[in-house]
Amino acid sequence: MIQVSLSPALVIGTGLVGASVAQALTRAGVEVHLSDARYSHAVVAASRGAGTLAELDPGAYKLVVVAVPPAALASVIAEALATYPNATVTDVGSVKGVVLAQLRATGADLARYCGSHPMAGSQKDGPLTASPDLFVDRTWVITPHDTSAAQSVLSVRKLAELCGARLVTMAAQHHDEAVGQVSHVPQLISALVAGGLLDLPAEHLQLAGQGLRDVTRIAGGDPKLWRQIIAANSGALRVELEELHADLGRLIEVIDDPDSVESFLDRGRRGTRALPGKHGSAPSEWAEVVIEIPDAPGALARLFTDIEDAGVNVEDITIDHDPSRPVGMLGVHVDPTAAMSLTNVMTAKGWTVKP
Amino acid sequence: MIQVSLSPALVIGTGLVGASVAQALTRAGVEVHLSDARYSHAVVAASRGAGTLAELDPGAYKLVVVAVPPAALASVIAEALATYPNATVTDVGSVKGVVLAQLRATGADLARYCGSHPMAGSQKDGPLTASPDLFVDRTWVITPHDTSAAQSVLSVRKLAELCGARLVTMAAQHHDEAVGQVSHVPQLISALVAGGLLDLPAEHLQLAGQGLRDVTRIAGGDPKLWRQIIAANSGALRVELEELHADLGRLIEVIDDPDSVESFLDRGRRGTRALPGKHGSAPSEWAEVVIEIPDAPGALARLFTDIEDAGVNVEDITIDHDPSRPVGMLGVHVDPTAAMSLTNVMTAKGWTVKP
C-alpha cells in the first residue's frame, strides 16, 4: 500500500483560494510553508494561521499547491516540478486542459503532477477573506492525466479530503467542458445583463429589485482574472454561447405567443430543479394532511401550535382549494408514517381533517 | 386641502402581495376587508392579521386594491369601479400600459383609478409568506394617467406611504419600459440559462456553484404568472432582447480575443456598480492609512485589536504592495477626519505607519 504524507507542504500564491487551502492543511496538522510574489499577501495569510514564511530545503517538500492566476499556472507548475524534486505538484486553477497541454509542450516529466480544481471562491479576493472551511462540502475536482503517478493522484485526493471537500475525478478536457457550462457561461451571461444596465437612465435603475441583483452579482468579479479563465476555455465556451444565442433568437421570435413563452419559462423552472442539493426532495415523497381552517382571527396560529404539539415534522405547507365550498383548507405535508398520527391528534383537538 | 382617508379598504386577491398590503394597512390602523376567488387564500390571510372577510355596503369603501393575476387585472378593476362607487381603485400589477389601454377601451370613467406597482415580491407565492414589512424601503411606482383625479393619486400615494415604501411617479408606458429592462429581461435571461441546464449530464451539474444558483434563482418563479407579465409587455421586451441578442453575438465573435473579453467583463462590472444602494460609496471618499504588518503569527489579530481600541470606524481594508521591499502592508480605509488620529494612535502603539 502506498503511504501518503503531505507534510511539509508549500502553497505558492496566497490569495483567497491558496490561503484557504493553507489554513485547512495547517488545521489538519500539516506543516505549511507559504510563498507569494506579492509579499503582503503571504504575510497576511501567515498572520491568519495559514502557515509560515520560513523556507525549507527544496528536497523536503512532499506537496506543492500552485494557486496563482490562470495565465501564470503552467510556468509556475513547471518551475515547481523542477525546483522541488520530491513533491507532488498540483494546482487549483479553474481550467485544466490548456495548462496540461502547455506543460506537455515543455517536455517535462509530469508523473508528479496531478491537476485539481476546488469549486469554491467568491467575487472577493485575497487572504483577508480566506477560511479553512471554504471547501467543506464543496466539490473538488481532480484531473489526473495518463502519466500521473498513482502517488500523485493519492496525494491530491488526500489534499481535497483534508480540506473537507467532496471528491470528483474527471479528465481535464471533460472538466473544462463542464465548468464552461455551469460556471463560465453563467459568468458571461451575468456580465451581458449587467453591461446592458449602463445604457439605462438612473430613473429606470431605481426600479431594480433583488432578482436583477442576483442575476448580475457574479458580474462584479475581477475582469482581469476572468479574462484568463475565458481565454483558457474559449473553444468550449464558443459552442455553449452559440447554443444560447440560438435559443435567445427563438425566444424573440415567439415573444408574442404566450403559450410558447410559458413553455420557455417552464423549461427554465425545470432547469433550476435539475440543480443538485438546493431544491430538496420531490413533494411526492410526503403525505398531505388537509385541515379545514375556520374563518376566525388567530385560527392559523392555533393550528400551527397544535401541529407543533403533535410532535410531527412539517416538510411543507400549501393552501388547498375546494371550489364547491367557501372554506379555507391547509395542506400539511409530512412523512407518510406520521400522517395517520397527525390526523388523529388534530381530529381529537377539534379540527376538521379532510378524509 | 383634500382630505385622504383609506378606511375602510377592500383588498381583492390575497396572494403574497395582496395579503402583505392588507397586513400593512391593518397595522397602520385602516379597516381592511378581504376578498379572493380562492376562498382558502382569504381565510389564511385573515387568520394572519390581514383583515376581515366580512362584507360592507359597496358604497362604504374608500379604497379598493386589486391584487389579482395580470391577465385578470383590467376586468376586475373595471368591475370594482362599477361596484364601489365611492372608492379610489388601484392595482398592484407588474405591467401598467396594457391594463390602462384595456380599461380605456371599456369607455369607463377612470377618474377614480390610479395604477401602482410595489416593487417587491418573491418566487414564493401565497398569503402564508405575506409580511406587513414586505414593502418597507422598497420602491413603489404609481402611474397616474391624464384623467386620474387628484384625490385618487393622493389616496394611492398614501397607500404606498402607509406600507413604508419609497414613492416613484411615472407614466404607465415609461414604467413598463423600465421594468422590462430591470425585471422582465433578467427573468427571461435567467430562464434561458436555467433551461440550458436540462441538456447537461448530471455529472456536469454537480460542479455547479453559488454563481449559477444566483443567476438562475428567479427562473424558479411561476411560469403561469410570468407568461401574463411577458405577454403584457412583449413589445418593449422584444426591443431589449434584440439588443442583448446582438451583444451576445458580438461577444461570440471576439471570444478568442482576451482584450475584447476583458472590455466586455469590465463593462459588466461597471453595470453592477451602477445599481443603486447595494454597492455603497466610492472608495475615493475614504482616506487610506497604510500600516506595516510584521512577519509574526498573530500580528494581524493584534493589529485589528489595536485599530478597534483606537475607536475608528473601518470602512474597508486592502492589502498594499511595495514591490521594492519584502514587507506586508495593510491599507485601512477610514473617514478622512479620523485618518490622522488613527495614524497617531497606531504609531504610539509601536506600529510602522507609512507616511
From TrEMBL, chains A, B:
Keyword annotations of the record: Amino-acid biosynthesis, Aromatic amino acid biosynthesis, Oxidoreductase
Pfam family, one: PDH_N
Sequence ranges assigned to domain Prephenate/arogenate dehydrogenase in this UniProt record: 7-286
Keyword Manganese: no
Domain of life, per lineage: Bacteria
GO biological process entries: tyrosine biosynthetic process
GO MF entries: NAD+ binding; prephenate dehydrogenase (NAD+) activity; prephenate dehydrogenase (NADP+) activity
EC number: 1.3.1.12
Transmembrane segments: none
Family annotation (Gene3D superfamilies): 6-phosphogluconate dehydrogenase C-terminal like domain, NAD(P)-binding Rossmann-like Domain
Pathway: Amino-acid biosynthesis
Similarity comment: family membership: Belongs to the prephenate/arogenate dehydrogenase family.
Protein's UniProt name: Prephenate dehydrogenase
Provenance organism: Propioniciclava coleopterorum
